[in-house]
């Protein structure tokens, strides 16, 4: 009897849901628009004098988010491993209007470092209002080309634990201020894209963590999850780097220069959405249409990707982080910069990073 009921629901529920969604979509769009207007006019948070911690603030999305908060006259705490780079960003932030901006060199995948920069913030300012988790690490290799699995925990650590640890430490202070956590996620958390398997897995775990946390904190602490498509940052401009204590970097010049949406626009949307109290910020929002295919017609989505990949021609990869040597005659070019002797990895490990 139960099997018969399950079979019946499998046949009826998906098309019925699509019908309901089709009829309710205009009303939902109208309600969302009214809510957005109301929040923009009446509930937008004044950040003047508020305290904002931004991780991954030394470049990319994190840097631009710092400038957006600076324009709102917030007190900034900029966290990353490149302290020298942070100092230049803090000067520009103060020029743009930040009441103050302090820099703290720290590694977000180390709980002790996270506890240190949160405690230093509270000791200096007495509070934390917004925690922006902007540190992120991408890759562009095919999984079956990897021969050195030591890259796996690096990706998971930065993209998942690099968000969880700062949140864990800052949460008691955010409860006190009825503050907000802002998360830099990605559309890859549900949209499958080649050469990004581990990154996508980490982002999926991240989004599910914060969706659950949202229910647990019960509106005492706001959570804004920002998801983006292809953003024009260091990764799309051909720069890839992985730092060890801000002392060692690996860089690669990509064989194909890619371009993406402006990171400045995404940062502006994130900060505006966070100050309105939005639960989600999406850029560009039309990516949501793929979610319908992912849920109701996954085969169509898979066929589309396979068609696009086959039309692209021979499979190409940057061979970054795979543990395989690159021939001298290839298009990739590596440069190692180090300021002190360190134990280097056996193979070049190179990624794109927002810190």
From TrEMBL:
Membrane topology according to the record: Single-pass type II membrane protein
GO function term, MF aspect, one: oxidoreductase activity
GO biological process: steroid biosynthetic process
Keyword Amino-acid biosynthesis: no
Any single Gene Ontology cellular-component annotation: membrane
Keyword Lipid biosynthesis assigned: yes
InterPro entries listed in its UniProt record: NAD(P)-bd_dom_sf, Sc_DH/Rdtase_CS, SDR_fam
Protein keywords: Lipid biosynthesis, Lipid metabolism, NADP, Oxidoreductase, Signal-anchor, Steroid biosynthesis, Transmembrane
Localisation: Membrane
Chief location category: membrane
PROSITE patterns: ADH_SHORT (PS00061)
Family in the record: Belongs to the short-chain dehydrogenases/reductases (SDR) family.
Protein name: 11-beta-hydroxysteroid dehydrogenase B
The gene coding this protein: LOC107960388
């Amino acid at each position: 009897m139960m099997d018969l009921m399950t079979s019946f629901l499998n046949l009826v529920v998906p098309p019925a849901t699509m019908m309901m969604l089709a009829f309710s979509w205009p009303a939902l769009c109208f309600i969302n628009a009214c809510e957005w207007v109301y929040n923009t006019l009446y509930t937008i948070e004044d950040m003047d004098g508020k305290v904002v911690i931004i991780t991954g603030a030394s470049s990319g999305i994190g840097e631009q988010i710092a400038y957006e908060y600076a324009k709102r006259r917030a007190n900034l705490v900029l966290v990353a491993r490149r302290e020298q780079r942070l100092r230049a960003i803090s000067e520009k932030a103060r020029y743009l209007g930040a009441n103050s901006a302090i820099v703290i060199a720290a590694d977000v995948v180390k709980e002790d470092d996270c506890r240190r920069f949160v405690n230093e913030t509270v000791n200096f300012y007495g509070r934390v209002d917004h925690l922006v988790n902007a540190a992120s690490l991408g890759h562009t290799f095919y999984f079956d080309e990897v021969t050195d699995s030591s890259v796996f925990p690096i990706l998971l650590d930065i993209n998942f634990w690099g968000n969880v640890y700062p949140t864990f430490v800052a949460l008691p202070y955010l409860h006190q201020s009825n503050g907000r956590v802002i998360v830099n996620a990605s559309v890859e958390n549900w949209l499958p894209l080649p050469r990004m398997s581990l990154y996508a897995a980490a982002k999926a775990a991240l989004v599910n963590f914060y969706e659950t946390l949202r229910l647990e904190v019960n509106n005492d602490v706001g959570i804004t999850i920002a998801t983006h498509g292809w953003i024009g940052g260091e990764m799309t401009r051909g720069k890839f780097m992985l730092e060890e204590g801000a002392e060692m970097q690996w860089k690669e010049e990509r064989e194909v220069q890619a371009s993406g949406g402006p990171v400045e626009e995404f940062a502006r949307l994130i900060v505006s959405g966070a100050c309105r109290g939005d639960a989600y910020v999406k850029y560009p929002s039309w990516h949501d249409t793929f979610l319908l295919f992912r849920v109701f017609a996954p085969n169509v989505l898979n066929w589309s990707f396979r068609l696009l990949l086959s039309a692209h021609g021979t499979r190409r990869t940057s061979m970054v982080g795979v543990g395989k040597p690159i021939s001298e005659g290839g298009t990739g070019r590596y440069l190692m910069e180090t300021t002190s002797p360190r134990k280097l990895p056996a193979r070049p490990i190179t990624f794109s990073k927002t810190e």
